[in-house]
Amino acid sequence: MNNQFSFCSISELSSLIKNKKVSPVELTHYFLDKLETIGPQYNAIAHVNKSSALKQAEEAEKKILNKEYLGTLHGIPYAAKDLLSTNDGSPTTWGAKPFLNQSYKIESTIITKLNSAGAILCAKTSMVEFAGGMGYQQPNASVFGPGINPWNKSYWSGGSSSGSGSAVASGIIPFAIGSETWGSILSPASNCGITGLRPTFGIVSRYGSMVLSWTLDKIGPLALSSNDIEIITQHIIGKDDKDPYSIENSFNLTNKIPKNLKIGIPDDITNNIQKEVKDNFNTTLKILESQYKLIPIKLPELPISAATRTILSAEASSAFEEVFEKGLQTKLNAQETHYSSLATNAVLAKDYIKSLRIQNILHEQMNEIFNNVDIIISPVKPSTASKINENFRWATRKEFSEDHPLTLIGAIGNLIGLPGISIPNGFDNNGLPTSFQIMGNRQSDHLIIKCAQLIQNETEWHNKHPN
Amino acid sequence: MLVKIPNILIGVQQQIKASDIMSNIEHFFKIISNKINYKIPKDHIDLIKNRINGIAQDSEELKKYKIHNMEYPPKINNNE
To answer: pLDDT band for position A3 (50/70/90)?
Structure first.
């Protein structure tokens, strides 16, 4: 089978389906074959949902023949991170060996929404065990093995949505769903050179998803372009009574980028980062500078990383209380987490509460910043992907300062649930993708997607794919 | 077989003597040790020390930032 449908945009595939040039069953067969044959090369796939996918595809095809067209996602195959429950009998392993046979009878709201739009769930994508909640320090922290980067198999695909990143980047699925508590969508999107959206906290329901942190978990899409991200996002947002943190959204497709768009650039954002990441970011700035105003900004001086880590640790220790009591974390791939993860139980209640209070101060201070700028941009990471057999670069405080604005941007976005989108903007000398992110205020998801579209209309990085 | 928590905490206390939160952390670890019944291998003790140290450092950092009694009640993610 050739590569005729790999790397096609959702719009292109949708047009083929709508015009009956290809059937949902044919398309599903094509991507199931890719998932089964190429997926293992990247340790990208936890489970191929073959029988349920083909059943869904047949139903989608019947609807097409009956002229019941559901919209752009009708008949489009997709994959979902292996922490999203499905009721098709397939396992939902959370990337963890003790849960290899775990399955649920409930269906995650996001899966229900996508399936209702006619999309075909073809696979669960591999992930870092417990979405990294145990404190892993190296890529081989998944029962499915380290996520392998399609651009260079000696490098990591990123985490914790490792398989979602490598599956989309390798063209074996048009789009995938990931989750982010602290970096788990933007990091694999950046490592793999694709586009990933961390939505505003609460606008995408997390019902049916493994909990790492009630306060910080977000679910969002990874795709080939911001145009695809826009299509997917429309279908996955919405208030859901099954998720008590779910909120109404103000996603508005008619919104346009303001003519006087003001772009905030954090002071010292490119200090002490990889040269190519810096150079490519500066090139991106030049594109924006020709049309919009760039404004230097100073990020809030609060213990942001400490507060984010404290909330994450405290909530994870509660979410995984049973895991700890049964000692199941000692069965995980990442040996460094087997016992050190117990330390999360020692977070003091006063520190957890203080962190929640700091979260609200940060909301206030970021609102003040967003009174002066519409979006903030920065590189996603200080460097490109880590080697597959090494501990993470910048993994310790000594190597990359906690106070570096790049660290703060990630912590700010996750601590108060601001939307962020990762966009590829070039390569380093090893041929690994570099990326930058656009972050907006809460509920500005559509604005940051539009800004990403603006960049991607003028560049070709998102159209470059691994051989 | 209970976890040998006191051995672990001796090292941590040496690293962050100035911290006044250690007694609380020790207390929490005693609670944990009552809940779990597997033995911690010796080669993991430094990893645990590092994590506890990180939590203690975060605690110290949070402590430095003062918030007035009447300001900023916790309100998760500002959700209305």
So the answer is: confident
CB contact at 8 A, A275 and A378: no
Residue in B28, B40, B62 closest to A345 by CB: B28
> Is B47 in contact with A307 (Cβ distance < 8 A)?
no
Which chain B residues are Cβ-neighbours of A408 within 8 angstroms? none
Q: Is pLDDT at A24 greater than 60 in this prediction?
A: yes
Domains contained in chain A, CATH given: 1-467 (3.90.1300.10)
Q: How far apart are CA A140 and CA A453, in angstroms?
A: 34
Whether residues B77 and A245 touch (CB distance < 8 A) is answered with yes
Instruction: Answer whether residue B25 shows pLDDT above 70.
Output: no
Total structural domains in chain B? 1
**Mean pLDDT (whole number) for B61-66:** 96
According to the model, what pLDDT value does residue B8 have?
A: 46
Q: Flag if A306 and B25 touch (Cβ within 8 Å).
A: no
The CA-based diameter of chain A, rounded to the nearest angstrom, is 63
Whole-Å CA distances, A372 to A236, A293, A294: 30, 11, 11
Closest CA to A189 of A357, A384, A428: A384
Torsion of CA A186, A191, A193, A195, to 10 degrees: -10
Q: Which residues pair with A45 in a beta bridge?
A: A125
Confidence of residue A323 (pLDDT cuts 50, 70, 90): very high
Sign of CA dihedral A292, A302, A340, B50: positive
Q: Residue B47 sits in which domain range?
A: 5-78
In this predicted structure, the answer to whether residue B79 has a pLDDT above a threshold of 70 is no
